[in-house]
Amino acid sequence: MKIIFFGTPDYVVPIVDHLHKVFHVTKQKESGVIAVVTQPPKQVGRDRLIDHSPVDKWAWCKKIQIITNIKTQELPVADLGVVAAYGVLIPKNCIDHFPYGIVNIHPSLLPAFRGASPVQAALVTGTNPTGLTVIQMDELMDHGQIISQFKEEVLPDDTTESLRVRLFDRSAKFLTDLLPNYLAKKIRPKSQDDQKATFTKTVTRDDGYIPPDILQLVTGDQWSKKEAELKINFIKDYSLRCTPETIYRFICAMTPWPGAWTKIVIGDPRSVKSEKRLKVLEAHLSQSNSHQPQLVLDLVQLESKNPVSWEEFKRGYPSVILTTEGE
Question: pTM higher than 0.90 for the full model?
Fold first, then answer.
């Protein structure tokens, strides 16, 4: 079995590694994962050093062919393609290159949360359980027929990082157990119900913004007397009803990137204002005197400063105020 793996970030390396271990035959020159397709190297840092993707680094160590542009580089002959967080829509002619097509590993229970940010969407919306789906790839985004799925419980303190790592780690063995029956045509894939499809797009740096008035609302004792909504730009047609619980979930969804943040004003508001960005790095839910949950900020970071506890921050900036957008 010859496999080409399409993927980029560190959390999919366990999948390509397990695929290669299971399907590589020592006495056969080309078997297992014979090539990877990954995002090209990028310049990072002040020194603009070249940084290769984690999948690229894995393949280099294994002396496996690395492809960074499927438009200009020819794919070797292979039986099956496997995609996990590659980051680019794969054209139909590339799918047709493989006798068994391409299977795609998507971290949601499709048709829920098609698109680039399914793990963040599950956390923000409070979807529990979430899960992972293996589909036959077609030319549309996360649209192909479902081969199999598994469910995964979302833990109370899960962040995007912890939930995503757990889903992809579990998917490595799930996929290798699944493929022999799929390739032997013992599994009949099922079409998705497009009427139930929901959609996500790539999270941007600005998507982590929490308006200051909402942050004040959910960290105070009187939040239940007011209602507010936060438009979630990376989930199509979705707004979040703001409570301490939902904003806590939002903070978890924005961890580790782009991070939840708000705007503050440093200094006397009657003089020259100095507006700064304040990141919320850690928070937790606590019971208040009114027996209602309250959002408690634990660790924050003012732009250009080191992270500090919320209490330490308030001692250092006793006159700080939250500012609403446009003030």
Answer: yes
